[in-house]
Amino acid sequence: MKIVQISDTHLTAVGGPTxxxxxxxxxxxxxxxxxxxxxHSGDIQVLHxxxxxxxxxxxxxxxxxxxxxxxxxxxxxxxMPGVDAWAGLTVTDERVGAHEAAFGPDHWRHxxxxxxxxxxxxxxxxxxxxxxxxxxxxxxxxxxxxxEGRPVLFFLHKPLWAVSDEPADHQVDVGPVARDRLLRLLxxxxxxxxxxxxxxxxxxxxxGRAIEVWAPxxxxxxxxxxxxxxxxxxxGYVEYTVADGExxxxxxxxxxxxxxxxxxxxxxxxxxxxxxxxxxx
Length: 281
Ligand SMILES: [Fe+2]
Ligand SMILES: [Fe+2]
Hints:
The chain is α/β, with parallel strands linked by helices. It has a single domain (2-280), classed as 4-Layer Sandwich (Purple Acid Phosphatase, chain A, domain 2). Helix content is 30%, strand content 19%. It is built from seven helices and eleven strands. The chain has helices at residues 17-33, 52-62, 75-78, 93-103, 130-143, 176-186, 266-280, and strands spanning 2-6, 37-40, 69-71, 108-111, 116-119, 152-155, 191-196, 203-207, 210-214, 237-243, 246-252. The strands form two sheets. A six-stranded mixed sheet has the order 4-5-6-7-9-8, with no helix packed on it. Bound molecules: fe (ii) ion (2 copies). One fe (ii) ion binds at residues 43, 74-76, 157, 198.
């Protein structure tokens, strides 16, 4: 079976080049790729989780994906955990609720004959919300109840494994506490792939029997000069092939899709500056 992972679409009610890129992607998937399933690994909407117009507009655009679509939220959809959340946008019950009203449950299990897909809300991890405790209970129960021998693909917005030894100025992965707990729980299952977004770059690394896949964004490339591993700095998507119990993943370009940076989206760069400056006061 063929599963496509898209990520970091950062869609806005304003439209613009990121929407044009998304429309190209959706048409390419519907007409040329024809996947069995599509997973969106978060940052659906552009920047602010409370922007209802962005959310509604993004919801409409995701309907252009004709294959069954599974969605996990990113930090720009529901906020981040912790006191150092980007631009002070902390994950809250209301924000997750608004996301779920538009896109469905923030964590889910999807069974097929070839594989089991599991998606979780990485932004709840270490948040201390009741929803976090509920999700941990759900993860434990779900992983304890998997069909024997069927490969598992696990999706979340932030990377599960540590991204860098250097301390970063924002949350780049799920952090050590959630990572240790998740890895212990994942130990006993037929884990073959862990797909995330958030870093706006592609990388594939072998982790035991599983591949760790950083999906590229479709919206814009990460600004240069960060301390993180470079990976492949191109916009596109990931195509997974599941066959005979094994999972392979490959980076794919969308024909004709421009390689946008925030320099091409000056109002996004400006909005980022405004949000982060307001949070710093
Ligand atoms: Fe993003
Ligand atoms: Fe993100």
